[in-house]
Please model this.
Amino acid sequence: MSHSISISLVQERFSVGAIKENTQKVINLAVEANTDIVVFPELTLTGYPPEDLLFRNDLHDAVNDGLQAIADAAYPGVVVVGHPWRQDGCLYNAASVFIGGQLIGRYFKQALPNYGVFDEPRYFAPGDRTFSFNFKNHQFAVLICEDVWQAYPAADARAEGAEFALVLNASPFEIGKLAQRQQLLTTLASRLKMGFAYVNQAQGQDELIFDGASFIANPDGQIALQAPSCVTGIYRTNLQMSHQHLLAVHTDVVSPVSVEAEVYQALVMATRDYIEQNGFKGAVLGLSGGIDSALTLAIAADAIGVDKVQALMLPFRYTSEMSVDDATEQARLMGIEFDVVSIEPMYDSFMQQLSPIFAGRAADTTEENLQARLRGVLLMALSNKTGRILLTTGNKSEVAVGYCTLYGDMCGGFAVIKDVPKTLVYRLAAYRNTISPIIPQRVIDRPPSAELAPGQTDQDNLPPYDDLDAMIAAYVEQDKSLSEIVAMGYAEATVRRVLNLIDLNEYKRRQSAVGPKITRRNFGKDRRNPITSALRKQR
Model:
């Protein structure tokens, strides 16, 4: 029986472009791990995705320096680290393997994803061969992310004698993704009789969330180690021979959490990392007394701390006393810096100047949008003065159908719940209150309203959110047609109106703040629809 082999999966944040810092992290974390094998995520040195930074020569010079520094550190065991690599006129998504500081080989990713948020063929050439190495009389393959989703690289590695695959990943979060990864790898492990050590980075990067959730699947298809989602750390176990297979010793396997807990943790991490990595001193937002801003405030405070978050209530003559009271109460419960500033004097001044130009024209949404834009001006002024980023509070349902105002409530630098459907907003607010009751129950229970007109509610202009969210998911995330959505049980006139609103408001979404992706397809990198399109006229 062979000796056991200790292994660490390093689930960490490696900031895009921070090559010197990332290199030093690799060196420090390897020492901290103190195991025979230490595995880091995909493109560790550059962070993922580096996008068009990959076209810069200075980036590659820094990567070369980083690889040399890792070699010079001479970690006594195995270090597997991801990075881009130029060779023979091509650029590869690569992983280097060092033993005792000596480079023993490189693997080039074979399967390059070109769907959803991925466009790796824009940058990389595909590798065309397997790579494995012998350590303590056991054969380890190296694979990178999409390689296991396509299966053939793993099968080829197994055919060449690999017992265990070390898989470097930068796999973005979306609802249900962890279960998909586990199903994929446990099935592949069982079929190939090969183990998989799957390590994923843990960080927010612009609109992507990398949730970690690293794990090890044994050749029998059992999960032996499962790291938590959205928590950085070093996760260790031992590999040893048992029943003629190299198996990971059953170590920590975290229990599954609810969808609400999973999404909330991901949004908190995305918000924290965006604010911190972009150098903002904190965050400001408009707290309206409604559900969306209430949830956004909770996420922001959990992400960066209540002392770094400031909220403004900006009431108008149509703002109910209930809204002011609920916003004030949430700020009190949370200990948030909070002020109330009426926009009424500013609105009256604007209308006085505009009334000669508007003469003879009836009031319409113009006056409603002016309220939103005045709030945007005040919030942006506070953001500029304090050096804190303005967080927008619109949800996916509103963004989809254009129920938002350009240069008004769309003002801001990060849209925390941009990809969260309205129905999920309510569930997340209720979940957050199970941790500590900070969102007044009345905010969750009352009908949603923008309060831009007397007695206004969202459902005056929109279908019930249960129906609206189902239609949005069908059209945006599943590419279903008008007839297919009608067949789901919705009135054709309603579906046609919703789909037209989604298409017509693409121009607004192109001007909106970036926000974290949590669904199968978000408005952003995931969905690249033209603004000018006559396709809807053919429905």
